[in-house]
Amino acid sequence: MWNMKQLEYGALARRANQIKKELRQGVRRPYKEVIDVFQGDLHRAGMKPLTFVRQVLAACVYPPLINSSNLPLDVRQRAQEELGRCVGGSVGSYSAAPGIPEIIHSISEFIKRRDGGIPSHPENIYISPGSQWSISNILNVLVNREASPRTGVLIPVPCHNKTVLSITQLGAVAVPYYLSEEQGWALQVEELQRAHESAKGVCNPVALYVINPGNPAGYVQSQKSVLEVIRFAWEKRLFLLVDELYQDCVYGENCEFVSYKRALSEMGPPFSGTVELASFHSVSKGFSGECGLRAGYVELVNLDPAVMKHIHTLFSKDACSPVLGQIALNLMTDPPKPGDPSYLLYKQEIEQIRTVLVHSVKKVHEVVNSLPGFSCPPIEGGLFAFPRLHLTPKAIQKAKELGLQPDTFYCTRLLEEGGVFTGPGWEYGQKEGTYHIRYNTSRALFKVHH
Amino acid sequence: MKSMSKITLQLQRCARDITNMSQQAVNGVSHRGRVLTLDSMNPNVKRVEYAVRGPIVQRAVQIEKELKEGAKKPFTEVIKANIGDAHAMGQKPITFFRQVLALCSYPALLEDSKFPEDAKQRARRILEACGGHSIGAYSASQGIECIRQDVARYIEKRDGGIPSNPDNIYLSTGASDAIVTILKLLVCGEGRDRTGVMISIPQYPLYSAALADLGAVQINYYLDEDNCWSLNITELRRALSAAREHCNPRVLCIINPGNPTGQVQSRQCIEDVIRFAKEEHLFLMADEVYQDNVYAEGCQFHSFKKVLFEMGPEYSNTVEMASFHSTSKCYMGECGFRGGYMEVINLDPEVKAQLIKLVSVRLCPPVPGQALLDLVVNPPQPDEPSYATFMKERTAVLSALAEKARLTEQIFNTVPGITCNPVQGAMYTFPRITLPQKAIDKAKELGLVPDMFYCMRLLDEEGICLVPGSGFGQREGTYHFRMTILPPTEKLKVVLQKIREFQLRFTQEFS
């Protein structure tokens, strides 16, 4: 299903870059620019960075700005605070390997607030250059290459491919469990059960990877679903890896983000004290959208203290996360408060982004479902639409003739003729005989396009 | 928006339903053991150590805490001379770089007349190359194209015109990231066929940590302490042939200028190493992050790429190599930005395709670090407004380091029991300490490696944090420590004085 060695992989991205180059050089095409809706990159899609965040970062980078009356007082004070936590007062020094201690503390407070008061311990939190970095570090600890049978990790289908790549590169086996497209991409425990069974004789599943809200499928798990998954992990002795990057991107009415940490705690013993959990978040999505700064964190729950020591050493050899990213993470978890000079603007910008995202998603859903050959369940959360392509037998045949996956064929034509760069469904996994494309929904209203 | 307590109640109700459903199952099942234990975890990770941030640093942090809480000690601060972090020790950032980065972070400042025009121009160019004109957008995994082009031009200029192809440049999250990535590509095989990687002893422990993590075989070649830590080909040959008995040696790593030893390899030596790599069919990894940190008279940085190409097509068309550089050292000291790159030479195209895939897993290197790297390779030119200040700052940093290098060597060599090779380059000194037998015995009693015992005592008595030589590797029966030359000159003099006093006391105590 995931053909890592296929030359196709990344070929579309290369072609998109080539076309971008040609357009810059003045080559005539039926469009003036490539609309890149391939990645979950909000800034690229036209979202403006939050003013407060960028003002603070600028002042941290160039401290003379702290004395500039052009910047609001709270920005200047905040920059001073952040610099005070940097060794030597510079964002150019290394920080402690897990991250700047005050920032980690701030993250733990954020998690506690989010989860209705359930404590979060700073020593269980590690900051890394983006969430994929800590996901691969944790996978590295979990995957015993010398073990026989090989280590297995259950992953959703569809799934963004980075984690899958990490799993296969470590020599582990990715065991797919299919999300139910008919039920709006719901995660069904029966399917988890089937997937777990299927691993017998093939590999030894040790972990269950969940993405909530989903990527590319835009579901938001119900509370019941989260609890069922935790119970399943408990029963089958699976380490839970939960990717919660899109926790701020929830649009569906009656949808609510429920963190796995919170749900686990609310379940009480024996679950709350035993299920091993790693939850991941970052500054890349949500209202910050600061993917390029590379800052994410992992919170580890119920891990063996002896193993934690080794995890600490593993993160140490990576030096530390970029300090600007750490500061951006801090600003995300500890934003301006009512009464602060920057608060009104901050709130306004957040509301604007939220409105645009909600409208974009609605619009995309409407438009996609009105197009012949497309169908798409409601997008409850996340940044993508993953509509189903109902391709004609002729189109499928043509694709096969060209040696392409049918959805890649479609995406290639969409790129060449329409200048729109999307992701073919096969790169994320899908049920045999079905085709999809992945499309970043936020672009719809941030920028005007044809 | 529902209130928090309502969500809690709902969750609790839901949770009760689910747990009730499985009550029977729960009652029947014994205590669930952990999935992830010392036994089940990746055994390679257990072998990973990283002395630079290891136990001695943890002790230093503990002492700092105690000082903060008002504990009385024979010192008022802990001097962290363990880590190559220039800004932490008070070195100032280069003004021009920080101005451009501030403009990139908050482009509204482009209207601010207090910023010079050349800084604004650079910022605009960088922002133009970013998605949505924001440093917050992902870049291509290999790094922003125009920055890679600038890096290639910098390399060409540095190497006297030898061409550099931007497609062979991969930007990274510090040089460490690129080093680990290349090792991941190179390490394979099982048992006797497992990849062996040659690394100098002493070495920068990122290498030993990465090799342990990847389950590669570490092949040690000893630098010659009696000859200024020079590299001997005979020693390389010895190490290689011994290694061939039990692994498949494929890689030769060299750090030049050296860490922790500070030696700057002669051109002849670099040629010999390249010749050796070709003869023995080894992939060369040249860690050149200290390339601007050269102090000693008669020493000069020669890039491996330059020497390779000057040796003619027989070598330049065949030897496979990767050279590494970063924004963390030299005169910039911007460790916290995690900027870096590698240039790969003669890499098999299919392997390159795998390399692209590897770097794509973590999406892209931090864009501020990429922007900073662009400035390092594209600094103010003589005809630009910021040039004078830039050169002044750069020269001040490098000459201060040169002075401190000289001072350190001079003072340490006057201390009985300490011998110190010249600090020809980089940022460290790695002096040899003679430990009385009684001290060695005491260390063993305490379950400590002798130089760790020494360093712990120094930390407890003087508040100076160094890294024991055992963390870097050294010849059996010899002991060293690594100290950075980064504290400001006056403070450094105090540190050297205190170490001298400690050394005398320590020797006296265990005589």
UniProtKB/TrEMBL annotation, chain A:
Subunit composition and interactions: Homodimer.
Keyword GTP-binding set for record: no
CDD domains documented for this protein: AAT_like
GO biological process: L-alanine catabolic process
Pfam family, one: Aminotran_1_2
Cofactor: pyridoxal 5'-phosphate
Residues annotated as transmembrane: none
Highest taxon of source: Eukaryota
Name used for this protein in its record: alanine transaminase
The enzyme's E.C. designation: 2.6.1.2
Broad EC category: transferase
Boundaries of every Aminotransferase class I/classII large domain copy: 71-429
Alphabetized UniProt keyword annotations: Aminotransferase, Pyridoxal phosphate, Transferase
Upper classification of the organism: Eukaryota, Metazoa, Chordata, Craniata, Vertebrata
Biological pathway: Amino-acid degradation; L-alanine degradation via transaminase pathway; pyruvate from L-alanine: step 1/1
A single MF term (Gene Ontology): pyridoxal phosphate binding
Similarity comment: family membership: Belongs to the class-I pyridoxal-phosphate-dependent aminotransferase family. Alanine aminotransferase subfamily.
Record's catalysed reaction(s): L-alanine + 2-oxoglutarate = pyruvate + L-glutamate
Keyword Transferase: yes
TrEMBL record, chain B:
Record domain Aminotransferase class I/classII large: where: 100-499
Keywords: Aminotransferase, Pyridoxal phosphate, Transferase
Cofactor: pyridoxal 5'-phosphate
SUPFAM superfamilies referenced in this protein's UniProt entry, alphabetically: PLP-dependent transferases
First-tier enzyme category under EC: transferase
The enzyme's E.C. designation: 2.6.1.2
Pfam families: Aminotran_1_2 (PF00155)
GO molecular function, one term: L-alanine:2-oxoglutarate aminotransferase activity
One GO term describing the cellular component: cytoplasm
Pathway assignment: Amino-acid degradation; L-alanine degradation via transaminase pathway; pyruvate from L-alanine: step 1/1
Catalytic activities: L-alanine + 2-oxoglutarate = pyruvate + L-glutamate
CDD domains listed in its UniProt record: AAT_like
Function text: Catalyzes the reversible transamination between alanine and 2-oxoglutarate to form pyruvate and glutamate.
Subunit structure: Homodimer.
Family from the record: Belongs to the class-I pyridoxal-phosphate-dependent aminotransferase family. Alanine aminotransferase subfamily.
Name the record gives this protein: alanine transaminase
Organism: Astatotilapia calliptera
Originating gene: GPT
